[in-house]
Write a structure and sequence with these properties.
- By secondary structure, the protein is α/β, with parallel strands linked by helices.
- It has eleven helices and nine strands.
- The chain has a nine-stranded mixed beta sheet, sandwiched between helices.
- It starts with about 25 loop residues before the first helix and ends with a helix.
């Protein structure tokens, strides 16, 4: 979900609006024209048609009205911007680096670094990559009492006898809104991406967990603990940063220490990941924000999470990233043809302190869709592996 305070910039060159793209004004106008024409035809032919014909005209009219509304929403937020994006093709995205920095100083952890591999370990990872699994589980929360669904990705080498004593880095991956813990293994194709990168030796084997983040659906928790007076039963932050890591440490061989824990997400999940890392830098040393936003939203989808402006500001990474914190690594990506994402990401990049590491990328197209997040997650995993395996 995206903030809706920004509006399209006024431009004297409007060829993009007059091309027949999914988010173009021309396409919207043509669709509305066809819809009005079909409704008018249905009214004219109503008495001349049998019951079956009338039903077909009503259904067609309703479908066209719905498509017009969806197209209007799509145009307002630049969600799907190309026909190739609509059919699932990454053609034309052309990812490019906007800004890159290794930051200064060190990440400051005394725990063993699970990103660093011996040649023998890397060979085991590469040879067993195709044997990874994705399993659905329920994660119980000792602190919250929640029992929420999740998925866990285990690399092929996890169950290999040569890795019996080995611990693995962890990716904690969050979804957008509306979305679910299943989004990473379906639309973003996490398993395929990790299997391929591990097999190619571009990253070590990792454990990935995709937890539920909205304890009271259909409400959007924004991964926060609600203010006591506003929403006292929302403790998503405690669940995601406490219960989920504790459960994984108990049931899986997870690396300990902040460099071994990555938190990431797309859209709302990108906001969640960035905010939680800044609020819990003792837990996470790196963030992946795919088409994320960086100012907390307070609207009907979130329910009243914030009691006052101060609490909202304290959960807005655009502001809190400038405050003193241990060194963090930020990966961000957005599509150039989505104005809201582009502005949000650029503002956040400008605010990242010089001490932090960051890699900011864009794609030429893709809007606000899983195609951008599929491409972005691949580059994020490679960059983090390079950063922490040195």
């Amino acid at each position: 979900m995206l903030p809706t305070t920004l509006r399209r910039p006024v431009s004297t060159t409007v060829p993009s609006d007059w091309r027949l793209a999914p988010n173009a004004l021309l396409f919207l106008l043509l669709l509305i024209l066809v819809t009005v024409g079909v409704i008018a035809f249905a009214a004219w032919q109503w008495r001349r048609r049998r019951v079956t014909g009338r039903i077909m005209l009503v259904v067609l009219s309703q479908v066209l009205v719905m498509l017009s509304v969806l197209t209007y929403i799509n145009r307002a937020d630049d969600l799907i911007t190309t026909w190739s994006s609509l059919v699932g093709s990454t053609a034309g995205q052309s990812p490019a680096v906007v800004s890159r920095s290794a930051g200064t100083g060190v990440f400051g952890t005394r725990a063993p670094n699970s990103w660093k591999l011996t040649p023998a370990q890397r060979q085991v990872d590469m040879s067993t990559a195709a044997h990874s699994t994705v399993t659905s589980i329920t994660i119980g929360g000792g602190a919250t009492g929640y029992n929420l669904n999740a998925q866990v990705y285990l690399p092929g080498s996890y169950n290999d006898s040569q890795s019996a004593a080995r611990k693995f880095p962890v990716l904690e991956l969050l979804a957008g809104f509306p979305g679910s813990y299943l989004s990473w293994s379906t639309g973003i194709q996490l398993k395929q991406t990790l299997d391929e990168l591990i097999a190619q030796g571009k990253m070590p084997a990792v454990i990935a967990v995709m937890p539920s983040q909205n304890p009271h659906p259909p409400d959007n928790s924004e991964c926060l603990n609600g203010s006591r007076a506003a929403h006292p039963d929302s403790r998503a932050e405690t669940y995601l940063t406490g219960d989920v890591p504790a459960y994984l440490a108990q049931h899986y061989r997870t690396g300990q220490g902040r460099t071994n824990w990555v938190i990431g997400g797309y859209s709302t999940g990108g906001y969640c990941a960035t905010n939680l890392a800044l609020r819990h830098p003792d837990r996470y040393a790196s963030v992946i924000a795919l088409s994320g936003y960086f100012t907390a939203i307070h609207n009907g989808n979130t329910t009243p999470l914030f009691q006052d402006r101060q609490r909202r500001a304290a959960n807005s990474p655009q502001l809190t990233v400038t405050q003193p914190h241990p060194k963090l690594a930020f990966f961000t990506i957005n599509a150039k043809d989505n104005l809201l994402d582009a502005v949000s990401n650029q503002n956040f990049i400008n605010a990242i302190p010089a001490a932090d590491a960051h890699l900011a990328m864009t794609t030429q197209s893709g809007g606000h869709t899983p195609l951008v997040w599929r491409v972005g997650s691949r580059y994020a995993f490679i960059w983090l592996a390079q950063l922490f395996s040195k």
